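ok trying this again, last paste got cut off
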Amino acid sequence: MKKILAIALALVFVLTACGQGTTPTTTAAQPGTTAAPATTAADKKPEDYKGTLTVYSPHDSDPLNAGVAMFEKAYPNVKVEVVADGTSNLVNKIKAEAANPVADVLWGGGADTLAAYKDVFQPYKPSCIDLIDKSLYDPEYYWIGESPLPMVFIANTNNIPEADIPATWAALADFDTDKYGKIAIADPVASGSAFTQLCTMLFLFGQESDDYKSGWEFVEKVIPKLEVKNSSSLAHKDIFGGENAVGITLEKAAIKYTDAFMKVIFPTDGTSAVPDGVAIVKDCKNLELAQLFVEFVLGKECQTAQNADYGRRPIRSDVSPVGLKALSEITLMNYNFDYAAKNAANIKETWQDKLIK
């Protein structure tokens, strides 16, 4: 049914762009910034776009494949080749390939990670920029947020009573591992979402003035309570499978489990909602198609379908999320985006040092 809906949504439009028109419209760009292509329906039809576009993506297979299928349906003469992996692995791959880029677009991955690798991307200002909150895209347009991602806890009440499920980040430090086993989390070195979760703890309990010393002290208390997984998906799949009672994961992953015994918890002492981002690779071989893809994934039809089918939060102000708790009902903490981006390597190194102590 989900695939049918995705195809049906694709058929209701000939060309999906960020705005309501049939093609991307001209948007004024900042100096050194590529603006949305100045084309009209008379200039270029969907079938006029041809070639192969290479997309790197850490997204789960279902929303990833559905989004690509919608794009290929809208542009029948464009073939999309996908390379799927964790965010950190993909940005490092893009960096290693910088002299001869393979990827054209990175679709997905925490924006704080994308910002840390800003030098491997090129700026692009999409036509729908006025529909996106300024806090959710790079001020120079090196990346654009495409879905806000609240961090949550997920629990299996077959393994832990609801009364004992942590309701706050602070409660993780006192979690009873003897009774309920360790808390699942992905590795912040390899997983962009887990890196955001680590930074969330640092920023919630520490201060920038001393490089989040108190935050690191809190993390040191939590580390013995954690079981670090080698894949982001295991931080929620192993909860469902009963391997762990509690995990730390993304809202979009947690809400897929509709069984009554699975519970999603928004920490009441605050949580982050850093967006996934989309970015064009510097000196990519297929710039026009890359721009087209960015316009597409930020477009109203794709954003609506991704929300309806896969519970992803729309980034656009003109698309209301369906089936999700309103952001206004979630306690959001002050996430220090700039610090996370500028200090990513040091944060990961410090994590590794503390993990092996």
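PB: full thing came through this time. Residues 61-74 form the longest helix (14 residues).
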